[in-house]
Amino acid sequence: MTLSGRKDSFSIFYSSLGLSIIPTRLKTYGDLSDLKILKKDLNKTGGVYGIIHEESSKQYIGSSLNLYERLMDHIKGRDSNLRLQRSMKKYGLNIFNIVIYYIHDDPAVLLTDVETSVISAFPLSQLFNFKKEASSMLGYKHTSQAIKKKMKARFLNKINHPLAMRRMEKLIVNFRNI
């Protein structure tokens, strides 16, 4: 079952069990070794997802306008939640499942609002997330002062400077040729 073309509305996003409201799992991916299925189903599809550690039921909840690319960031350890990355490194990918909670097809609905709703449905102790409210840096522009401050901090240690690395590489090559 692919998710593309599916018309899920925000109103069916929750299923109710007694007094507690829990997010409905629209789709679960258990085999993270087969990335072709993820790409086929989730490339260029926006939504809210969870990455669940099956033994502890602890999960990371996030959202993206391109679920496949964002999940690949997590799987490959790029721009990912530190707690989630430590757990993936410790236990391996085979113990994690990916769950899709919401497919984004309505531009009037903000993904961060839906993500916050899903996050708030779980106790913080069951999450890798650091906070209960989702936020996004999408479209954020750093001030020139902030950029200068980051650049200064980045090159405070001269080893981090790109020119220093080039000089170091030349020294290593020359040393090997001796």
Write the layout of secondary structure elements.
Elements: E1 14-17, E2 20-23, E3 27-29, H1 35-42, E4 46-53, E5 59-64, H2 67-76, H3 82-91, E6 96-104, H4 111-120, H5 144-154, H6 162-176
Antiparallel strand pairs: 1-2, 3-6, 4-5, 4-6
Your description of this structure?
This protein is an alpha+beta fold. It has two domains: 10-126, GIY-YIG endonuclease (3-Layer(aba) Sandwich), CATH 3.40.1440; 144-176, no CATH class. It contains six helices and six strands. Strand 4 (46-53) and strand 5 form a beta hairpin. It is globular and about 65 Å long. The N and C termini lie far apart (61 Å). Mean pLDDT is 78; it is low at 1-21.
Which descriptors would you attach to this protein?
about 180 residues, alpha+beta, GIY-YIG endonuclease, four-stranded antiparallel β-sheet, two-stranded antiparallel ribbon, 6 strands, about 35% helix, globular, disordered N terminus
Structural class: alpha+beta
Radius of gyration equals: 21 Å
Domain module count:
2
CATH fold-level label of the largest domain: GIY-YIG endonuclease
CATH superfamily of the largest domain: GIY-YIG endonuclease
Whole-Å distance between the termini?
61 Å
Which ranges are low-confidence, i.e. pLDDT below 50, for 5 or more consecutive residues?
1-21
Overall number of strands: 6
Name of the CATH class of the largest domain:
Alpha Beta
CATH architecture of the largest domain: 3-Layer(aba) Sandwich
Q: Please give the largest β-sheet.
A: 4 strands, antiparallel
Specify the helix fraction band.
Answer: 25-40%
H/E element order = EEEHEEHHEHHH
**How are the strands ordered across the major sheet?**
3-6-4-5
Number of helices: 6
